[in-house]
Write a structure and sequence with these properties.
428 residues, alpha/beta, 8 helices, globular
Length: 428
Amino acid sequence: MSGATPPILSVHPCQALVDETFSVVVENLPPGRPVTVRSLHQSEDKDFWEAYGHYVSDHHGTVSVSEDLSLGGTYRGKEPMGLLWSMRPVPGSRTGLRLRKVNVCAPLLVNISVYSGHENFRDIPPLVSTLVERWYMAPGVKRIEINEKGIRGTLLIPAGPGRYPGLLDLWGGGGGLNEYRAALLASHGYASLAVDYIKAAEYKTKDLQLKYFEIAFNILKEHPQVMSDRVGIIGLCLGSLIALSLAAYSTNIKPHCIICISSVLTTSSGKLIGGISEGIPERAQKTRVDENNHHIWRDVGVALLDEPSMKVEVGKINCPMLLLHGCDDQNWASLESAHEIYKMMRAAGKEHLVAKVDYPGAGHLIEPPFSPHFRATNFIPQGTKEKLIVLWGGETKAHSDAQEDSWKKILSFLQQHMYSNPSTKSKI
């Protein structure tokens, strides 16, 4: 491509939170010229992720990712954020990868480039490139490491001196300390405590008790910058089971509201105090694999729902709850669990406390918006050293739409119940 004036690539804003949209515009192209717009990110574990769309410049020599149609690539059609949500490992990468931000104090760096043509673009230098910063932690958010009373976690406090509603942030059975959702929640005005509980030295999985989470809840509640009467819980998968169990059974804490993503309703004897994994004795028999040898666990959850004694007694819950689930969840029977939760709450005369959203085509791992979709990734079950590839489910476009919509609903739900003084009816 020749010409006196080189192409101009603009990304606005070039620095933003990960849940903010951006616009990508290429100017000074020849009219009707095919180009590929590509995003490239190197993860903290040194793997490369990419997304790209094929475009044709208009009669002004301009391509706008927000307004124009992608004719092919990792996404199609008018998709303003397709360069992020359709990211996948570059060809030749290791199998079963999952992209998760570890250091929330540093941005997720994405290189946006423009290439001539639609074919073999990886083999030629880009016409123009620019670097974009995507942040989980807004300026001024404070990060505090917690290691007290047997609790290991990270507290993220919003910028400013004020007192804020609090959220106990619980991830699933993969374990580890994951801070990025808590950092993003803090960026929106919620003091958020991300807790490592699966691998906590004092509380191995088989011994895990409600007490551990009550202690973590109270650490958050007692922080001087937290509204002690406005502390809720957000949990994904196993974290949702803990949220439900605390709201139903704890006599020491009272969550102001709970958010359950891809819910788990069943455990040993219906109570968390018996340990997390003991309620799934038939795991090996109920697990199946697909044609790619990806492990599917949803049948275990379906079977356990037939055991009334293993269900958390959610009818005892008296706080508002938001249930978010993918209809193509292949990891757990979360959709069936959500319907059962609603049924049990209705039987208790408390359906007004429940807001439930089902997402057709979405899988298990409903993450913050514009995160890549992970249909199947590596997973090491607790108590083993065997690495499996677990099928989470979901179709990329539908799952990505669910992530964007569910985040809006989460923020709306929190605004309604943590900052406002609404009636107890959930309106989602």
